[in-house]
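[audit] Reproducing an earlier prediction to check determinism. Same input, same settings, fresh worker. If the tokens differ from the archived copy the diff job will pick it up downstream; this log only records the rerun itself.
[audit] input (108 residues):
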Amino acid sequence: MHKHVEWDDPGQYSVLAFYANTQGEHTDPHPGSIINAHYQGISVRVRVEAYVNDDTSIGEVVALISPRTGERKQSYRNLALGDMVRLPDTMRCIEPRLPDDEDDEDED
């Protein structure tokens, strides 16, 4: 059974919007893919087990991450690692970089 999740709107980080003007660069998720979404302000990573109806992934929650600090959680509100969820393509997002993810240009 899949847990019902009210995903946050991906807004400017929408995967579909990002690839809207490209041809051939975007591929559908497949078993083993890790995809991202937002749930009540946190980043959620899902390992795809199946892709159904040409628009929805079914998979296991493998990470819950605070987008501000990078802190990983075992659970957050009604969602926990290991939960099986449905994630429509319209709710998938590309993860923004954390502020401290900047490449150190002085490092050789």
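[audit] rerun output stored. Observation attached for the diff report: The two ends are 49 Å apart (CA to CA).
[audit] end
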